[in-house]
Design brief:
The protein is built from 3 helices and 7 strands. With about 160 residues, it is an alpha+beta fold.
Amino acid sequence: MKLSPSATTERVRHLEALGVITGYHAAVDLTKAGYPVLAVVRLKYPGNRHQPLRRLLEERHEILECLRTTGDDCYTLKVAATSMGHLETIMDELASFGSTTTSVVYSQTLPYRGPDRPLCIRLGRVRLSWSTGLASGKPGNYSVPNPIPIGGPASL
């Protein structure tokens, strides 16, 4: 899509106002940043008192991501560590909350890339579809005219 800088800026601001774009981040090479060990951890968390785990998540910045999931495991975490010993320390802390299963990552086959253009986005009661048209303020189906892809700068 070929847009002028002002048109691109306007569309980005519109997506920010809608809450579609919620922030920006840097793509960090974890190995070069001193975290050569990456692991995916599944945590079975018995009971329903999750505040102690939430405190640990706030304190431990090596835990990069935490997803609450269905099934036997309650949480899936992405953990970066400076060494296997460092990972073991983090795992000992996580094991105090329940049983864990750890998978060390060999390589990242597909780095995070964000989604491509969705067929539709739901924001509250307003539904936006990625076709041409004009959105109004009433609940229902609406379109964003000439939307920008959410897949990152390369897709602009």
